[in-house]
Amino acid sequence: MIGRPKLAAATCALIVAVWGLLAAWIVTLVLYAITKAALLGQLIPALLGGFVFLALVGFLLSIFVYCPHCGRHLFIRSVGERSISRARLRRVDSWASAVVEVLAHEACYCVYCARKVEVPWR
Ligand SMILES: [Zn+2]
Questions:
Q1: How many whole angstroms from 116 Cα to the centroid of ligand 1?
Q2: I want to staple 70 with a disulfide (CB 3.0 to 4.6 A). Which of 41, 61, 100, 113 is the partner?
Q3: Structural domain spans, the chain
Q4: In the prediction, which pLDDT does 43 show?
């Protein structure tokens, strides 16, 4: 079981909010390109600013979430590094799926050691 389940879950929720802001920013950009509505033009920098700010906070929180088995970061993956055993798990293949798994099932698989990590946040 993870050491700080509430912090891990809050981090996951924040990361999902970041994804939502990014999606909203992209949709707003497209709608603005089509309609040229002034309100949409004003929303674009606000959504981008919110995305950058929350992404930074989410990254900072992710630094404090460790795998209890191997001690590596659960939601931060080094570029090019991948667990051999984890590659066998078809269901989860990235830190992003770990984020979703934590929120949906209160557990995820470590990006590095591929072991199951219980995150009882409810
Ligand atoms: Zn691990």
A1: 8
A2: 113
A3: 5-118
A4: 95
pLDDT over 90 at 33, yes or no: yes
Which stretches does DSSP call E strand in the chain? 107-109, 116-118
Between the CA of 71 and the centroid of ligand 1 the distance, in Å, is 6
Cα 96 to middle of ligand 1, angstroms: 15
Total-model pTM? 0.84
Residue 117 has pLDDT above 60, yes or no: yes
CA dist., res. 47 & res. 26, Å (int): 9
Cα distance between residue 92 and residue 98, in whole Å: 7
Please list the residues that pair with 73 across neighbouring strands.
66
Task: Provide the pLDDT confidence category of residue 6 given band limits of 50, 70 and 90.
Answer: very high
